[in-house]
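Example 3.2
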Amino acid sequence: MTADSPKNLRVLLVEDDVDTLTATLKVLEALGHWATGVKSAEAAIARFFDGAFDVVMVDIGLPALSGRDLAEKLLRDHRVPVIVVTGEAEPATALRGTMWLRKPYTVEQLVEALGRSSALRP
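Structure, written as tokens:
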């Protein structure tokens, strides 16, 4: 854990790949965070409520409702920081309130993204 990474974040992880979901949850917990995961944007919407999570990590390429659509909804309705996790390059104009974490990423890059997400919190 680095000095710039907050401990004890409550993280909602939205990832449709079961292996990636499981591995990322284990890493988040090893870093000292409380994390729970869901496999779709629809499940995230059902699970999310104001104040329950400090940050949402969302895979951009979700089936049905996309990660981008979910991020837009969360930012519009709840003002929670969103880390967009994707293999895609960050667009020139990313959604305000989001940061991009490009797959594959290292634990150090994850720690940095979590630390930066705290600056996005209202």
